[in-house]
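Hello,

Our lab assistant flagged a job as stuck in the queue for most of the afternoon. It eventually completed. Since we weren't sure the result was trustworthy after the delay, we are filing this so someone can double-check. Below is the sequence as submitted and the structure that was eventually returned. Let us know if re-running is recommended.
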Amino acid sequence: MVEPFGALMVMMDPPAADESEFHDWYDIEHVPERAAIENFLSVERFVCLDGWPKYMACYDLKHPNVLKEDAYLAISGDKFSPWSKRIISQIHGWTRMEGIQIYPGNLLLNSSGKCVRLLCFKINLKIKVSDNELIEKVRIFTDEIKSILQFRIFNQTNDDNQYYVIVELGSPIGISDLPWMKLNLPNGSIDLANIYSRYWRRS
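-- returned structure --
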């Protein structure tokens, strides 16, 4: 059996004093450092159109334990560069999610996507719900969405009842009307339903 991909998602608001330097740091140092790691399969940044925090970075990983490997540990945590430490100390709304792709398992971010809807929700562990049941509920929900390219479901590795869904679309038209409230969760609660467009790196 092929091991499912892992994922890292980080959301944040830039320092109020200098958003320009925040982008310089992300584009010049932070993203290239991670993209150079062999088991980081894709790296993409997004800008929030509806919701908060303002920016999100998505990293597809060959497997969830990539974040425990030496190559990543050498550039993270107490090994952050001085520039990273200074910028990170000034950002707001830092939210970090590590997950395993439970559906479809080994799908990368679609390079043709224009926008994404990110849903985060919790499931009551007292009610047993199989991954297949959860996948079917999300599939019914996404069947109503026009211009959908794909959707992926992740289970947080440090919280078994926390999930997130990334719905990728080829067009931003009508994205604000996505019927996320119709997602019939089994005694669950939606904590976040943000809309993002791709961030285009400055030359």
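-- support follow-up --
The delay was a queue issue, not a problem with the job. The result is valid. The chain has one domain: 6-198. Residues 19-35 form the longest helix (17 residues).
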